[in-house]
Amino acid sequence: MAQSETVILDHLGIKRALTRIAHEILERNKGVKDLALVGIRSGGDHLAAELQRRIAEIEGEDVSLGAVDITLYRDDFSTRGILPVGKTDIPFPIDGRRVVLVDDVLYTGRTIRAAMDALFDIGRPRNIQLAVLIDRGHRELPIRPDYVGRNVPTSRDEKIHVEFDESLQPIEVRILKP
Question: Which of 33, 94, 109, 136 could be a cystine partner for 123, CB 3.0 to 4.6 Å?
């Protein structure tokens, strides 16, 4: 049986969503003081870099940028099998900082829980906020994003795919239906 694909956000739609999220982050945090963006590998780290660029354009200041790998913090090894371990790269102290955790798609909340566990092993942020490009529902944990590019109600058998080009720019979001 063939899958059908529907584009739900094109390049310009993604750009608008990330620009809006950048403005919302700045408004809520009253600028970039003590702010850091940490993207979840892989996908969230590319979006965090995009948000960093947009915030710098808007605010004229750089915000700290890091990436976290959650492979060793996952609770689904039995269903996923062996996954390659990536690199966590947070080149700044997170103690006392407002950390915006960035991911591409929010689904059950388990990835976010794993990322928070990884962050707490590194330090003690003042708070953790969550920015996602797509929130598709079906939460299994009490996790709610602070910033959402787009809410896309899905069935459990559908998948959301965020595509990046060779320079790691987000170019398209598709919903894949069985």
Answer: 94
- Give pLDDT tens digits for 137-159: 999 999 999 999 999 999 999 99
The whole-angstrom separation of Cα 133 and Cα 154 is 15
Within 10 A of 124 (CB to CB), how many other CB atoms are there? 11
Counting every residue written for the chain, the total comes to 178
DSSP assignment of 89-114: B--S--TT-EEEEEEEEESSSHHHHH
Interior angle at CA 156, CA 1 and CA 75, nearest 5: 115
CATH architecture designation of domain 4-76+86-177: 3-Layer(aba) Sandwich (3.40)
Average pLDDT score over residue span 8-27: 98
